[in-house]
Amino acid sequence: MNKKLILSLAIIAVVSLILIFLLIGLQPDKKTEIVIGYQPSTHHAALMVAAEKGWWEDDLKQFGIESIEFKKFASGPPEMEALQYGKIDAAYTGSAPVVSHLYEGMDAKIVAAVQIQGSGLVVRSELAENYTGPESLRGMVIATYPPGSIQYTILTKWLSDNGLNLNKDVIIKDMGPAEAVSALIYGHIDAVFLPSPHPEIAEKQGAGKVVEWSGDMWPGHACCCLAVSEELIKNDSEIVEQIVKTHIRATEYVKDHPEEVAGIIAKWIGTDEDVVLQSIRESDMEWIYDPYKQVESVEKYAEVIYNLNRDRYERRGYSLLKEHDIFDFRFYDNMTR
Q1: Which Gene Ontology cellular-component terms appear in the entry (predicted)?
Q2: Mean of the pLDDT values across residues 306-319?
Q3: Which of 26, 162, 191, 304 has the greatest number of CB atoms lying within 10 Å of its CB?
């Protein structure tokens, strides 16, 4: 074998090794942990039930997932910040916060519905007897979740549609559920608008009375959804498909076993089981998983949020988000073909 041939073979071997190392370096690390966000509400019962039953671990271990962490958030906006910056992989959250953060550059999609309706307006006990509709809220201070949340979006739209000027006729304060109920009890605010079971908790504690359900304010409105990062969709689509499958299974179980589910929810959110069961029976919430049922009102949320921030969005060249910008139906479609 001559020297030129030996040199050529050596060069080929070195180049091949370099290419192999480069390709290995370009491959993403194998995912072994999934982090899912949620909020302390009956709305997210499917996540809690699947966790209690061990379904998340059992269903995802076939894909190399060794651990699953559940992170609790007080409301949707901070949960979406966590999703936007890679602190969580998936989220049970309000669909309005998803839309709001998509406008701010979050790379994620809604892959399944979680539930519709299910938030209540509670007016302080001594004021509730005089409640006759939105006009009777004039001059009141109302606590709800932060701007961009489902509750803020629905409440402010409903008030505006009924001729009330925000922060002039009605003052809106950002509060989490425990803080808001406490403030209502001590008379620091006049009303709260919160997801179940917090309206029923407020009633049980004598803080006030439920005077409106969100389904009366906006019939059939989308509330919570299951959103996942585009990184997970791109790199681990089979995991996303299984997450949707597990969610569907858990949702069906939740609908068929309300008494058992009330105990699980009570354990997760730290409240009385009887209050949770009352909430399941009395609120206008409905658990679902079909994302197509949320499209119409989620596109409306996109319009409402865009109009609230129109000047800033137009300066940045943002356009109105539509269905294809918000949803990825492929995983649900694969489950239901």
Answers
A1: endomembrane system; membrane
A2: 92
A3: 191
| 222: β partners | 116
Identify the sign of the CA torsion 134, 136, 139, 141.
Answer: negative
**Of the candidate ranges 2-6, 175-179, 224-228, 243-247, the one whose mean pLDDT is the lowest:** 2-6
- Do residues 328 and 318 both lie within one domain? yes
Tokens 């989620």 sit on residue: 298
Is residue 107 domain-shared with residue 127, that is, in the same domain? no
Same domain, 230 and 301: yes
Q: How far is CA 124 from the centre of its chain?
A: 28
Q: Quick check: 135 and 162 in contact, CB under 8 A?
A: yes
How many Å apart are CA 305 and CA 148, to the nearest integer?
7
φ/ψ region of 213 (left if φ > 0, alpha if ψ in -120 to 50, else beta) reads beta
Query: Which of 192, 217, 242 finishes a domain?
Result: 217
12: in domain:
no
**In a 3-state reduction of DSSP, which class is residue 320?**
coil
From CA 95, how far away is CA 114, in angstroms rounded?
Answer: 9
Total of domains in the chain: 2
Examine the pLDDT at 284 and tell me if it is beyond 50.
yes
User: How many alpha carbons lie under 13 Å from residue 153 in its C-beta half-sphere?
Assistant: 31
pLDDT band at 23 (very low <50, low <70, confident <90, very high): very low
Q: Is residue 7 part of a domain?
A: no
What is the sign of the dihedral through the CA atoms of 219, 253, 290 and 79?
positive
26 domain residue, yes or no: no
pLDDT above 90 for 144: yes
**Tell me: the pLDDT tens digits for 77-121?**
999 999 999 999 999 999 999 999 999 999 999 999 999 999 999
Residue 23 in any domain: the answer is no
Q: What is the pTM of this model?
A: 0.87
Spell out the alpha helix ranges (H) of 142-257: 150-161, 177-185, 198-204, 214-217, 230-235, 237-256
